[in-house]
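hey
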């Protein structure tokens, strides 16, 4: 950071509780997921950015969550990163060759990589989920210390393997357990618990099996269910939905001593959060989302972004058009209809939960979505679609899809399953 600056403000996009920030890498602007759950900066997609130069390359293997083996990668050093004036002139980047890890389809925007510890390690970093901005504070900025002490709640964290850990109180079946949890901005869920890492927490009486996402080493499966409560940021959250990955999906991950899970974006996004790695502290101030209920996708379908396609629309433009004169009375008639072509997003069904209302209605994996409740899918976003699918129990979803070049219409009701 420029020594003359007291702070640097970086706007971000918030999608499914995940933070995406623009960063220039060796002069080329890319989009990164801001993830406190990773140590190294990882680049897995360049799209049309073919002119980026990388230096000092060496080959290696990377492991992480998922059931498969390690993936091939390259490490590059001496790279310049610039996030709106917050710069690093000697940054290491890992280039992952496995393109299946690219999760752009899950969030609906091009995502080039992940950045974590090296973004946070030298300065206080404030994440304002409500106003969608990250602020990096210079050490010389004394004003922020006064603000934090006056307006925020302060908690101790430990920094282990370059990641922040917090001790939470998890309550289940009238039993309260102090639990070490990773503070993970790269996880969109509320709470993850690894049952093979603790004897004190057991799976809920009622749960569902679910696909949880994809890590470095493959797909992640597990179960979801509600627990009584857990604590974070001087608040107790009641009846949150907890996610329990199966042991196969986490076998390749490295775990610090006594870690039993993670706190993710569904909880962190209810606060303004300030990470202070140097002093092993996290500061929190709740926002308007604090007391919102923990809801889950009640449709049974997972939707993904499946690319772009050209669409043709007829629009009215009174400034232009074809002027036509009637031969009988010379009355001028102006045709102001114009044809416009635009690139619009395509959405498809990535998975259908067994025994869900969507499956019973007839929806299948791979169906291309044309309309949802009368709205053209081209005019929607992943965020709006996901919000609709977990909006209100009993709500009717009418969906029009294309399958094998034929159009079908289905109707089903959202049903709470947790």
């Amino acid at each position: 950071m420029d020594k003359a600056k007291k702070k640097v403000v970086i706007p971000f996009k918030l999608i499914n509780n995940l933070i995406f920030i623009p960063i220039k890498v060796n002069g080329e602007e890319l989009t990164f997921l801001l993830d406190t759950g990773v140590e190294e900066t990882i680049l897995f997609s360049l799209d049309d950015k073919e002119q980026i130069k990388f230096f000092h390359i060496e080959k290696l293997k990377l492991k992480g969550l998922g059931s498969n083996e390690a993936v091939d990668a390259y490490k590059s050093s001496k790279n310049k990163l610039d996030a709106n004036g917050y710069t690093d002139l000697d940054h290491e980047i890992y280039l992952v060759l496995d393109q299946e890890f690219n999760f752009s389809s899950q969030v609906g925007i091009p995502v080039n990589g992940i950045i974590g510890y090296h973004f946070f390690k030298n300065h206080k970093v404030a994440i304002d989920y409500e106003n969608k901005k990250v602020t990096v504070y210079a050490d010389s900025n004394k004003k922020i210390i006064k603000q934090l002490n006056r307006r925020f709640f302060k908690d101790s964290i430990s920094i282990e393997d370059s990641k922040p850990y917090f001790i939470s109180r998890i309550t289940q079946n009238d039993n309260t357990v102090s639990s070490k949890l990773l503070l993970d901005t790269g996880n969109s869920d509320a709470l993850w618990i690894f049952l093979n890492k603790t004897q004190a927490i057991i799976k809920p009486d009622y749960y569902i099996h679910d696909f949880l996402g994809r890590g470095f080493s493959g797909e992640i499966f597990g179960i979801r269910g509600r627990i009584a409560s857990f604590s974070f940021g001087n608040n107790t959250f009641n009846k949150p939905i907890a996610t329990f990955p199966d042991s196969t999906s986490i076998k390749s991950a490295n775990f610090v001593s006594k870690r039993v899970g993670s706190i993710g974006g569904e909880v962190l996004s209810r606060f303004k959060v300030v990470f202070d790695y140097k002093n092993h502290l996290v500061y929190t101030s709740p926002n308007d989302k604090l007391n919102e209920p923990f809801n889950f996708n009640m449709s049974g379908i997972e939707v993904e972004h499946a690319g772009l396609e050209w669409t043709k629309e007829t629009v009215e433009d009174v400034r232009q058009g074809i002027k036509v004169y009637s031969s009988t009375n010379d009355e001028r008639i102006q045709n102001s209809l114009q044809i416009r072509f635009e690139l619009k997003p395509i959405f498809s069904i990535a998975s259908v939960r067994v025994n869900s209302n969507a499956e019973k209605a007839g929806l299948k994996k791979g169906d291309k979505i044309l309309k949802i409740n009368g709205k053209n899918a081209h005019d929607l976003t992943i965020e709006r679609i996901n919000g609709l699918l977990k909006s209100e129990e009993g709500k009717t979803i009418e969906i029009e899809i294309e399958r094998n070049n034929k159009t079908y219409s289905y109707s089903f009701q959202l049903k709470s399953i947790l």
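Residues 318-328 have pLDDT under 50 and may be disordered. The helical segments are 104-107, 117-120, 143-151, 265-268, 357-361, 382-389.
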